Amino acid sequence: MAAGVATWLPFARAAAVGWLPLAKAPMPGVPQERRRRTDEMLVVNVSGRRFMTWKDTLDRYPDTLLGSSEKEFFFSEDTQEYFFDRDAEMFRHILNFYRTGKLHYPRQECIAAFDEELAFFGVIPEIIGDCCMEEYRDRKKENAERLAEDTEAENSGDAPLPPNSTDRQRLWRAFENPHTSTVALVFYYVTGFFIAVSVIANVVETVPCQPPPGHKKALTCGEKFSLQFVCMDTACVLIFTFEYLLRLFAAPNRLHFARSVMSIIDVVAIMPFYIGLVMPKNEDVSGAFVTLRVFRVFRIFKFSRHSQGLRILGYTLKSCASELGFLLFSLTMAIIIFATVMYYAEKSTEDTNFISIPAAF
């Protein structure tokens, strides 16, 4: 009796203050069990983490492991549950697929490990939802490229070349693994030295220098010592060109090498020098190509050939391209909004520096 009064007391209080009218009709009865009697509850133990679901839920997909009779091989008579020594966190997404019919890709998980779990439970990745399919394919492609590069690096590692190897194979081994010979190691450090010299010279030539006697106008170091910088730049470009041609000659697949990112960086880094040689001295014509000299800064990316850490950084930036793009978009919107506010706030002020919205950037 006391339990019944306690159950209805909150409804009575709510009705007294006008929250809920009292029901005049009798309360409906307890709903009966809608599931069939043949349906049963199953317990799936995944590495110590128990999941409970209905048998009908798993039977929806008979072509998979959990939906077929093959799961009986994993049934434990002692615990009366199915045990799988797999990743419990990823299994949660697989079980949700049985429940909802939609498979989602967990972004925080490794793409290779997720594919292994799908293959074990017999779930094909083509049924991943549209909301996750694009990112899944991007991660899949990125992982395949990384594995291909790692395989190529292992093949060009410390393993000895066959006795009948050609000069091209030995030269490519020297480029990819300079520690295999003394000559390759010397060439490795020489090219690295010229990369550093080229980058430093590109910066120093823009620094203002003391003008020579009889000149009042301040000159940059590049204008004051133009001959020295031209000779230095020519020597660096010749070294880079020689290295690129040797790599192109020794590459196992020249077309694949020419289309690679590092090959494009090599070409872009030396392109301004050769364009400047064929361009006429007419300022009206050559002035449009002066901005090409900015491509010389791409020589700094040549350091990535000599640093595994820079290559890892490149992989990281590539995998986070969408997030970085959204961050850049957000910063751009914030700059435009605040610049607009500053412009209209200072518009009526005399001698203001915010004469336009771009000036308020």
Structural class by secondary-structure content: alpha+beta
Largest sheet: 4 strands, mixed
> What is the name of the CATH architecture of the largest domain?
Up-down Bundle
Number of helices: 14
The number of distinct β-strands equals 6
Residues in β-strands, percent: 5-15%
State the helical fraction.
Answer: 40-55%
3D structure, described in words:
It is a single chain. The protein is built from 14 helices and six strands. The protein folds into three domains: about 40-130, Potassium Channel Kv1.1, Chain A; about 180-305, Up-down Bundle (Four Helix Bundle (Hemerythrin (Met), subunit A)); about 310-360, Helix Hairpins (Orthogonal Bundle), CATH 1.10.287. The longest helix is centred in the middle third of the chain and has 26 residues, at about 130-155. It is flat and about 105 Å long. A hairpin with a 2-residue loop joins strand 1 (about 40-45) and strand 2. The chain has helices spanning about 1-15, 55-60, 90-100, 110-120, 130-155, 165-175, 180-205, 220-225, 225-250, 255-260, 260-280, 285, 310-320, 320-345, and strands at about 40-45, 50-55, 75, 80-85, 210, 220. The N and C termini lie far apart (about 75 Å). With about 350 residues, the protein is α+β, with helices and mostly antiparallel strands. Strands 2-1-4-3 form a four-stranded mixed β-sheet.
Tell me the layout of helices and strands.
Blueprint: H1 2-16, E1 41-46, E2 49-54, H2 55-58, E3 75-76, E4 81-84, H3 88-100, H4 111-120, H5 130-155, H6 167-176, H7 182-204, E5 208-209, E6 219-220, H8 221-224, H9 226-250, H10 254-258, H11 261-278, H12 283-286, H13 308-319, H14 321-346
Parallel strand pairs: 1-4
Antiparallel strand pairs: 1-2, 3-4, 5-6
Helix pairs in contact: 6-9, 7-9, 9-11
